[in-house]
Specification:
binds adenosine-5'-triphosphate, four-stranded antiparallel beta sheet, cell membrane, phosphate transport, P-loop_NTPase, single chain, Rossmann fold, phosphate transmembrane transporter activity, EC 3.6.3.27
């Protein structure tokens, strides 16, 4: 359902992604791993056109989501971002109440029906296992939540507008181990409904949560296969060296 072919990406003269081709199936979790600076986040940000915001960049190749070229001139970027939600490394709730954080996307998309908003907020908070923890303080500031709760709130905010794809850029790197395992459990639950693509520095995390893993190095996709295979019997020597900790 996501198909990319011969994707090249440049920051000015710097060739950051080199000929990347990858297909991602619906309702799977795909992890991107690789040494710092290898292009994982750059590639992830192409999925919802976040790199459009950076001046002097250039993209070539094909980037299809559900058969549609998302870089076609006819594509409306805000519509695309409703379909392809994103969660970042550091939890970034808005300076608003817990309720309004989750309702935000619905309101900016013109949804005025109070009952619907109420229902979506509740569903989204339930799907991130946060409802029981926050249902009695929905009017409190999101900043009163712990870091792990804030990250689950940001996931709920992304889910409220019913995306089909959820991008996560190192979503647990700022969290403690217990919050991390809650998010990992959540990822496992969410893939029933969503297609998830996650960048992680943590190889154990990739091994725990993903169905497929892509190993990137110096802007190239060195290997992309079933997670179990990649971590136990990789095809490429570079992958073997990386997963056994010989560099990176
Ligand atoms: N806005 C930018 N302008 C210029 N170069 C950039 C920009 N963002 C990233 N790069 C460069 O592109 C390359 C890939 O960066 P990217 O952030 O995608 O790597 P990464 O694999 O996600 O790294 P990390 O794991 O450290 O986050 C790096 O060499 C980086 O310096």
């Amino acid at each position: 359902m996501i198909n990319t072919e011969n994707v090249n990406f440049y920051y000015g003269d710097f060739h950051a992604l080199k000929d990347i081709s990858m297909d991602i199936e619906a309702n799977t979790v795909t992890a991107f791993i690789g040494p710092s600076g290898c292009g994982k986040s750059t590639y992830l940000r192409l999925f919802n056109r976040m790199n459009d915001l950076i001046e002097g960049t250039k993209l070539t190749g094909k980037f299809l989501i559900e058969g549609q070229d998302i870089y076609d001139k006819s594509v409306q970027v805000d519509e695309l971002r409703k379909k392809v939600g994103m969660v970042f490394q550091k939890p970034n709730p808005f300076p608003k109440t817990i309720f309004e954080n989750v309702a935000y996307g619905l309101r900016v998309n013109g949804m005025g029906n109070k009952d619907f908003i109420q229902q979506r907020v509740e569903e989204s908070l339930k799907s991130t296992a946060l409802w029981d923890e926050v249902k009695d303080k929905l009017k409190k500031s999101a900043y009163e939540l712990s870091g792990g709760q804030q990250q689950r709130l940001c996931i709920a905010r992304a889910l409220a507008v019913s995306p089909s794809i959820l991008l996560m850029d190192e979503p647990t790197s700022a969290l403690d181990p217990i919050s991390t395992s809650k998010i990992e459990e959540l990822i496992y639950q969410l893939k029933k409904q969503y297609t998830i693509v996650i960048v992680t520095h943590n190889m154990q995390q990739a091994a725990r949560v993903s169905d497929k893993t892509g190993f990137f190095m110096l802007g190239k996709l060195v290997e992309y296969s079933n997670t179990k295979k990649l971590f136990t019997n990789p095809e490429q020597e570079e992958t073997q060296n990386y997963i056994t900790g010989r560099f990176g």
